[in-house]
Amino acid sequence: MTEIFSYTAYRQLSQMFLSIIFFHSSEYILALAVHGKSNVNLKSLLISPSYLAAMLFSLLEYLIEIVLFPRMKEYWWISNLGLAMVIVGEIIRKAAIITAGYSFTHLIRTNREENHRLITHGIYRFIRHPAYCGFFIWSVGTQIMLCNPISTIGFAVVVWRFFAQRIPYEEYFLRQFFGSSYDEYARGVPSGVPFVK
């Protein structure tokens, strides 16, 4: 039971909690900066019951594994790879939000607003959905950082499936808004989520 109070647990769990706090607070602050206080609510923190359940499951997995298999958490090269993924995912996602500015929202727009523009510059030149790409890398990275094998696979499958369904739905509206301009853009730039066209 002393493994829970070890350096390994302290380092990995503190990195995890700091990653979560930074991710959600920076999302909220950017939403406030771009859309103004009147257009932002707690949904902008992106915390859903499913998300909380996933994070609690990953914490439970971590605690069980560090007690029963403490050496499993000592693979620092794996944990550091996860930390690098968290940082890279954050950078990609925040670059997407900042580049898109007002055109970025957490909810899919089903009606085109006057200020909504097709963003094809900056990070969008290389990745069609960089915010999704960044979140995918970030979320899987959090679990690799904890050396959580079950949650790593679970997060990868669940987050991939979510985006595999969300991207076609979102792109239906983007094609309605921007027509052939979006078609041409989509043909030349990958989605950023593996195996999602």
UniProtKB/TrEMBL annotation:
Cofactor binding comment, as recorded: Divalent metal cations. Probably Zn(2+).
Q: Name one GO molecular function term.
A: protein C-terminal S-isoprenylcysteine carboxyl O-methyltransferase activity
A Pfam family hit: ICMT
Q: DNA repair: is it a keyword of this entry?
A: no
Q: Looking at its record, which EC class is this enzyme? A: transferase
Cofactor(s) listed in the protein's UniProt record: Zn(2+)
Q: What is its main location?
A: endoplasmic reticulum
Task: Indicate where this protein resides in the cell.
Answer: Endoplasmic reticulum membrane; Membrane
Membrane protein topology class: Multi-pass membrane protein
Q: Which reaction does it catalyse?
A: [protein]-C-terminal S-[(2E,6E)-farnesyl]-L-cysteine + S-adenosyl-L-methionine = [protein]-C-terminal S-[(2E,6E)-farnesyl]-L-cysteine methyl ester + S-adenosyl-L-homocysteine
| Spans traversing the lipid bilayer | 16-34, 46-69, 75-92, 135-163
One GO BP annotation here?
methylation
Give a yes or no for keyword RNA-binding in this entry: no
Q: Which UniProt keywords apply?
A: Endoplasmic reticulum, Membrane, Methyltransferase, S-adenosyl-L-methionine, Transferase, Transmembrane, Transmembrane helix
Q: Name one GO cellular component term.
A: endoplasmic reticulum membrane
InterPro entries in the cross-refs: ICMT_MeTrfase, PPMT_MeTrfase
EC number in record: 2.1.1.100
Q: Which family does it belong to?
A: Belongs to the class VI-like SAM-binding methyltransferase superfamily. Isoprenylcysteine carboxyl methyltransferase family.
Name the UniProt record assigns to this protein: Protein-S-isoprenylcysteine O-methyltransferase
Q: Taxonomic lineage of this organism?
A: Eukaryota, Viridiplantae, Streptophyta, Embryophyta, Tracheophyta
